[in-house]
């Protein structure tokens, strides 16, 4: 993606010269607050939104000059469930592949492969409306993979599901990526992006504010956080430790933010002097949230109210 620009008819500049390079085989996170432009960007990549300027290439194929060829390389999983709830999962996948010209025998074989990978084979012949919310979302992923795309775009794939269901989906997505499929993920669950993705970009006000390897970007933060589980009750007054932020989550848990260069023994000494005994500690997994807030400002939200990629009812990747 090079110098992408998008201006809507009402004059709104959604993208202002966005350039991104997603390498083959990557698991890439695209993050941004509400109205930042990430849904427009996803819409352009998946050919749902026309660009005003710039260039998009999908594995070397120009999206504008060779749209049909480029779209055959892309699978899209929108946020909303958009398959026939009165159709069986096996039939949904086979019919979807048939729409793209795949012979039925080949489609049936591939449907079994994808349903097994999504842990849905035992549900292949039940009505889709009886599936749980997590199963329906895994079915969306399996359907998108029926065209064997080289690039899979996921727009908020785990929105509204609980953590256990999200973790089940993470395993499926890791398997797909490990098999060689490039994945671009948008999500408002920052721990999800940190857990799954190797590289990321943060977009705000239509511009990329940072991009690069996840580890390198997080390593630049000079703050780290810990959670302490405490024996007994916490005192009414917590000790003040210079350079840190110490707060009580409940009567038995403390939340600590401190400079990376600071000696943690100072904290333990101060807690001990205050009569607070630490039973166990763990690192907080909120480093990406800290990076996000620093780059976009406090009070921003990640959720987009109406993702562009989820709007059309046509199958993902259809030219």
UniProtKB/TrEMBL annotation:
<dbReference type="InterPro" id="IPR017871">
    <property type="entry name" value="ABC_transporter-like_CS"/>
</dbReference>
<dbReference type="GO" id="GO:0016887">
    <property type="term" value="F:ATP hydrolysis activity"/>
</dbReference>
<dbReference type="Pfam" id="PF00005">
    <property type="entry name" value="ABC_tran"/>
</dbReference>
<keyword id="KW-0813">Transport</keyword>
<dbReference type="InterPro" id="IPR003593">
    <property type="entry name" value="AAA+_ATPase"/>
</dbReference>
<dbReference type="InterPro" id="IPR027417">
    <property type="entry name" value="P-loop_NTPase"/>
</dbReference>
<dbReference type="InterPro" id="IPR050763">
    <property type="entry name" value="ABC_transporter_ATP-binding"/>
</dbReference>
<feature type="domain" description="ABC transporter">
    <location>
        <begin position="2"/>
        <end position="230"/>
    </location>
</feature>
<dbReference type="GO" id="GO:0005524">
    <property type="term" value="F:ATP binding"/>
</dbReference>
<keyword id="KW-0067">ATP-binding</keyword>
<protein>
    <submittedName>
        <fullName>ABC-type multidrug transport system, ATPase component</fullName>
    </submittedName>
</protein>
<keyword id="KW-0547">Nucleotide-binding</keyword>
<dbReference type="InterPro" id="IPR003439">
    <property type="entry name" value="ABC_transporter-like_ATP-bd"/>
</dbReference>
